Amino acid sequence: MSRPPRIQLLGLLPAMLKPCGPACAQPFTNRTVDALREEEIRETPPFMIENAERAHELAEVLFRDFGNRIRIEVVGIDSPRGVWLGLRHRVGGGFAVIVDGRDVFRDPKDYTSLKRAVSNALELRPASA
Question: What is the pTM of this model?
Answer without folding.
Answer: 0.79
